[in-house]
Amino acid sequence: MAQFDVYDNPNAESRRFVPYLVDVQTALISQLTTRLVMPLSRVGAQQPKLPTNLCPVFDIGGESLLLMPHLAAPVPERLLRKPVGSLSHRAAEFTGAFDAVLSGF
Fold first, then answer.
1. Is 63 helix (H, G, I), strand (E, B) or coil?
2. pLDDT tens readout for residues 72-93
3. Sign of torsion over alpha carbons 52, 72, 37, 103
């Protein structure tokens, strides 16, 4: 598993609104059985009210999805199957978003 890989949401109930999860956990703690993920949400993707440093928009398969770092949560690693993509080229935005959650910047 690689940091910033994108996975299909394994939860069928929430998949309609949150189709993907992004693994944001560092490889330094890969021995854990869980991965910290941030959801990519359809809900609110068109809302300009949210600060872009907190909730940047990512395009996955032609669809604009909103990162929801304030909803980051651990997910059992076994539920994250094959990655459908990677957002490693935008790593700074994930770091900035999490920073915004923690410090407000």
1. strand
2. 999 999 999 999 999 999 999 9
3. positive
Nearest-angstrom CA–CA distance, 47 and 31: 38
104-to-22, 51, 95, 99, 101 alpha-carbon distances in Å: 21, 10, 13, 7, 6
Query: Of 65, 51, 58, 39, whose CA–CA distance to 104 is shortest?
Result: 51
Class of domain 5-103: mainly beta
Q: Quote the pTM value.
A: 0.91
Distance, in Å, from the CA atom of 99 to the CA atom of 105, rounded to the nearest integer, reads: 6
Q: Residue 37 has which token pair? A: 């993920």
Alpha-carbon distances, residue 71 vs 3, 61, 88 (angstroms): 17, 22, 20
